[in-house]
Amino acid sequence: MQIGNRFTSILLSIVILSLLLSCSPEEEKADLILVNGNIITVDDQLPEAQAIAVKEDKILAVGNNEEIKKFAGDNTQTINLAGKLVIPGFIESHAHFIGLGKSLINLDLKSANNWDEIIAMVSLAAQNTSPGEWIVGRGWHQEKLDPPPFPNVEGYPLHNVLSQVSPFNPVMLSHASGHAVFANKRAMNLAGIDTSTKDPAGGRIVRDSLKNAIGVFEEEAEMLIYNEYKKHIDKKSEAELKNDKLAAIKLAVQECLENGITTVHDAGAYFNEVNLFKELADNNELGVRLYVMLGENYSSLVSNGKNYLLNGYGGNFLTVRAIKKYVDGALGSRGAWMLQPYNDLPGHSGLNVTTLEELENTANYAKENGFQLCIHAIGDRGNREALNIYERVLGESSAEYRWRIEHAQHLASVDVTRFSKLGIIAAMQGVHCTSDAVFVVKRLGEERAKRGAYVWRKLIESGALICNGTDAPVESVNTIKNYYSTVTRELNDGTAFYPEQKMTRMEALKSYTINGAYAAFEENIKGSITPGKLADFVVLSQNILTVPDEEILNTKIEKTIIGGKVVYTK
Ligand SMILES: [Zn+2]
């Protein structure tokens, strides 16, 4: 009997156990598990782990191999990470999404070493383009041309040779900063530019000593050329235009996935572009998650902005709840609005490109209608004016609004601590620091550069939050290159730009993940590998937190996973 009893009790235990196992609800089984990884979660509750379980588009559990293997069922896909690094998907906090796609279609001038190479690229394009069609490119920078252009005006090349190789095609080449264009004679003729054309407010037509336009149109003056280009584009049919944009979006998505980016903050989209994103999200075709800042002007925002508010649309692929404005231009084109004149252009302190009145009106509109405001500010004057507006409009509770300053590049010492005091987010770009470094001291002088240029450490130590990005297509959207710039501030020639201001590896990782999520009110669903959050990760070939500095650039993106789906494999 005793044996029988024991037998019965063992049998009973087995029955209960198997009942328990089979009763474990079906949702406890994962769709995907990743095991044998070196997982950096960016979550203080469990900073490191070996394995992750994913159910549908969310993270089910994080832990060691044994804990996670329990979630494997008959239909679970398993990925063996073989010791590779897994981090949360990169959040690109400032890029121009459709612009990135277009840059992959148009002439990419970033790789041209000098003006002759640019002329050769345009010449080739002109031979392959029908007369009248525009040739468009982006990415030249006079300071990076080697040898420097000769003849030149203020370092800029002149249009003559470029115009000779493209007599029948208007040419518009955007500056790397996006804050100036270079036009050939054909484009200037279309725009009716001559010695008597006046500089528009907030812009400048660069001229030689005889008052002839040399081809460069800075800041608002860009519009003189751009409007002609737009007239040409406007002749295209709706369907042609839509197809152009869809093609650009497709390329932008692919470029992001190849770089381990799972969310992009689009720094300025028009209503019709949001419509397109929405259409794609409806069909599960967006491909990468977007957090959109509306780039419309004040009056269109007032009449239509609220209709475009979207939160977590299409399975958390599309959120629209921010507005993008510009207070000034860029440093390279001397458009950044400075408190004191430029060192290399005495008497000139940069440009205010949107009136402070319009900015303040927009701020009030944003506050009343549930929009976050993101103001582009590069110069110390631009930053101060933006902070002043935020402080005036938001008052005591400013931190709740999480408003942002895009770039926050050059700061007066007294303004550095205002970011944390007011709870204003500094949306900065690591790679801007290293790629602008060659002309920062020239423009600002040693003292101003040392004190206030890209002062990441000062901002972090004062308690401010920095989110990171590349401003693509101004820079390449390359995450590894940007991470490297952020943690080394090292230039191509091996020197470092005020390295005392660099971020630690972990600070840089946070700036590129959880801080980006916070800067979009999305820290509850993104930015760390935490149960319940969206299953967005990236698998890297090596540990970017521990490899020597010079090894970082050799890191490869192995896999990008969005919502539990592997969307890119090397
Ligand atoms: Zn930008």
Brief account:
By secondary structure, this protein is an alpha/beta fold.
Structural features, described:
- This protein is of the alpha/beta class and 570 residues long.
- Helix content is 37%, strand content 22%.
- It has a domain at 99-234: Roll (Diaminopimelate Epimerase, Chain A, domain 1).
- Helix 17 packs parallel to helix 19 (479-488).
- Zinc ion binds at residues 94, 96, 267, 471.
Question: Keyphrases for this structure?
Answer:
alpha/beta; Diaminopimelate Epimerase, Chain A, domain 1; eight-stranded parallel β-sheet; six-stranded mixed β-sheet; 37% helix; binds zinc ion
Low-confidence stretches: 19-24
Kindly name the structural category: alpha/beta
In percent terms, what proportion of residues is strand? Answer: 15-25%
Q: Would you count the extended β strands for me? A: 27
Write the layout of secondary structure elements.
Elements: H1 2-23, E1 32-35, E2 38-40, E3 48-49, E4 51-55, E5 58-63, H2 65-69, E6 77-80, E7 85-88, E8 90-95, H3 97-103, E9 107-108, H4 115-127, E10 135-140, E11 152-153, E12 156-157, H5 160-165, E13 171-175, E14 180-183, H6 185-190, E15 203-207, E16 213-219, H7 222-234, H8 238-258, E17 261-269, H9 271-282, E18 289-294, H10 298-304, E19 310-312, H11 313-316, E20 318-326, H12 356-369, E21 372-377, H13 380-394, H14 398-401, E22 404-407, H15 413-416, H16 418-422, E23 425-428, H17 430-452, H18 456-461, E24 466-468, H19 479-488, H20 505-511, H21 514-518, E25 537-540, H22 549-552, E26 557-562, E27 565-569
Parallel strand pairs: 1-6, 2-7, 8-17, 9-10, 10-13, 17-18, 18-20, 20-21, 21-22, 22-23, 23-24
Antiparallel strand pairs: 1-4, 2-3, 4-5, 7-25, 11-12, 13-14, 14-16, 15-16, 25-26, 26-27
Helix pairs in contact: 3-8, 12-13, 17-19
